[in-house]
């Protein structure tokens, strides 16, 4: 069994701005673990523990879906607290695209291969403890970011949990037309 997800790996272009935003979060009255730059991704579907002999079938579905689409531009926007401002566990960045192309891609992948899926976002930090909830609730939405990147492929990723955080290995990459 392998712990798998399907996602879009974030290219290098937006990473310095995301790192700056993570640094601003570190200065807030909370304990958090920032997601490392090499691990930044937009999750489309979390498949969980899957038999490894299922990988070729999942890859074929991804190829079919991506092969029928052209690449598009995604926009990274402001931070959101997940699941909400009362019970904050994650700081994520909103990710959208013109014409809802990203959301349509997510829905088609979930329909074809299943898995757990939420509206598109980019997790940048996991919150361990909040020392001043009201300050964090007011301050996080004030952080600003607006970066764009080209989406030209979707990856099937194996996630191995370690004491130092997850380690990712791309098992398959499906390119768009």
Search tags:
177 residues, alpha+beta, four-stranded antiparallel beta sheet, 4 helices, 9 strands
Descriptive report:
The protein is built from 4 helices and 9 strands. By secondary structure, it is α+β, with helices and mostly antiparallel strands. The chain has one domain (2-175): Cyclic Phosphodiesterase, Chain: A (Alpha-Beta Complex), CATH 3.90.1140.10. The strands form 2 sheets. Strands 2-6-5-4-7 form a 5-stranded antiparallel sheet. It has a 4-stranded antiparallel sheet with strand order 3-1-8-9. The protein is globular. The chain starts with a strand and ends with a strand.
Overall SS class: alpha+beta
- Corresponding CATH superfamily: Cyclic phosphodiesterase
Task: Compute the CA-based radius of gyration.
Answer: 16 Å
What is the makeup of the main sheet?
5 strands, antiparallel
Integer average pLDDT: 95
Q: How do the helices and strands follow one another from N- to C-terminus?
A: EHEEHEEHEHEEE
Shape call: globular
Strand order of the largest sheet: 2-6-5-4-7
Low-confidence stretches: none
What is the CATH third-level topology name? Cyclic Phosphodiesterase, Chain: A
Q: What is the CATH class?
A: Alpha Beta
CATH architecture: Alpha-Beta Complex
Question: In which range does the helix fraction lie?
Answer: 25-40%
